[in-house]
Amino acid sequence: MALSLNTNISAITARRNLLQVSGSMKTSMERLSSGLRINRSADDAAGLTIAENLRSQVIGLNRAVTNAADGISLIQTGEGAMNEGSAILQRIRQLSVQAANGTLTSKDRQAIQNEVSMLIDEINRIAKTTTYNSINLLNGNSSALVSTSNPQDINGIVVGDVGGGGIYSVAINVAESSNGVPLLGKNQVLGTGILTTIDDRGNIFDATANTSLLSITSFRSFKVFDGGVRSVTLALSSDADNKITEVELFATDSLATVASRISLAINDPTLTTDLNLGGEISRGASLVSISSVGSSSAGGQTGSTVLTIMNPEPGRRLVWGGDDKTLSALGFNTIQEGEPPVFSVTVNNVSSPFEKFLPRTLKVFGERASGLIQGVDINFRPTLNISLSGSSVEKVGAFYVPKLVTSSASQNNSFLLEITPRPLVFQIGSNQGDTLKTRISDISAKSLGISGINIVDQTLAGESIRTIDVALKRLNAERANLGAVQNRLESTINSLRVSSENLQSSESQIRDLDFSEEIVNFTSLQVLSQSASTFLAQANALSSTVLTLIGG
């Protein structure tokens, strides 16, 4: 090899190798200090991509474990409230069994009813206020939102999984029999006992609208106002709701005053303390009348003065409680049992004209239609298509009472019911769609079908037992559903932890450093670095040889 001063190729080569070894040593020391084989994309571009994907999966899985744990906490909150609701239903059932016993008086049953009413209010409070992180759990919102174009007359009660929801047209009409006669149903008509009064000479006369209670023979016989008693209280309820309204009767009240107070207690559109039977429909109708029926004379014979009491809502039963002496003095007895009207409820899906959904029609006895829409029952007022005439009358037995008529053709009896699914969705995986969906139905008294529990009457108390059994069955089914979801979430957590462990192992193989291998590599680089430095010095010394030749 020729000797030259301009270019020292040997030194350049030695320097290049030294720089290369120094760079490799820097990378090796970075790996050894960080414990990672890949510290930047340049270390392993393909490996970095794979490792980052694995890391995102691991992070997502760990978050999903926390999500599932939060879901369990939410479910435990809801199920705990349902457990208390179940205990309340058991207590109501116990009280119903007690009230169905014939050893109790009307006052006893009214006292029991007061407790039942409070318990039902508590179930409604639980359904309304049970929340988790401000999410209402038991009011139906965790299953679906139901809205209607006329919430005053019709609404939807969530009872299960509503599927895809949708918008439905609902038409409600009074059903007709085979001969075209509307199946209107019958209102309950109550008649008091025979009301007479005795003058100072012992003559017996029919009582009139102006006769005071204190002057009525039966009130004297049963000593209602003896002992300085100025007033007595009647409790009035119905099988439409668990509400109780009280009517205070004073000794100086006339029969006309009593009739007015009872009528307003049954229905007063201006107040909320009434039984609300009929709402606006019964405005102007005479619910309580004073009349002498039949043709017989007075003096305690059939046909003497009575109070005729009309229930404006077909099929409902009025129930009387309170002061036993007053009930005996009035002599309330059932003249006619109410019969519910029969409605034809038609539902059609209008949200998707391309979906095959033929109109469904169901005959409904009462106020609740089930099975027409998935997961939702239709609840409506049974007076929706029936009105109580304030002028037309019909004869029922010996009584002439206000007549029931169908609604006018101009009345809108079609409504839109919009159902929007809102299930609880738990993100239990690291990818889109890795979810678990569940629902929690409404457990309010109306949804459970117990809002009308009434046990101030022995017969109604017996009937309420079956109603409560149905409510318990529904509530227990909801609790069982939540329990199954909780078990599934617990299994999901175990599965997620195993998956996270395996993915971390895979990421570790790609990203983490093998220290034994890297130490060997670093030691080799150290030796090469020292060697390169030594031979770079030797290469630089070659130039001195040339100078020796020149000097020579």
Note poorly predicted spans: 295-301
Q: Mean pLDDT, rounded to whole units?
A: 85
Shape: rod-shaped
Strand order of the largest sheet: 3-21-5-15-16
Tell me the radius of gyration. Answer: 43 Å
Give the beta-strand count.
Answer: 23
Distance between the termini: 20 Å
Number of helices: 9
Largest sheet: 5 strands, antiparallel
- How much strand? 15-25%
**Secondary-structure class:** alpha+beta
Classify the helix fraction into a percent range: 40-55%
Topology of this protein?
Elements: H1 9-34, H2 45-99, H3 106-129, E1 131-132, E2 135-136, E3 144-148, E4 154-158, E5 166-174, E6 189-191, E7 196-198, E8 204-206, H4 217-221, E9 231-238, E10 244-250, H5 255-266, E11 288-292, E12 305-310, E13 318-322, H6 324-330, E14 333-336, E15 342-349, E16 360-365, E17 368-373, E18 376-380, E19 386-396, E20 399-406, E21 414-421, E22 424-427, E23 435-438, H7 445-448, H8 458-511, H9 515-551
Antiparallel strand pairs: 1-2, 3-21, 4-18, 5-15, 5-21, 6-12, 6-14, 7-8, 9-10, 9-13, 11-12, 15-16, 17-18, 19-20, 22-23
Helix pairs in contact: 1-9, 2-3, 2-8
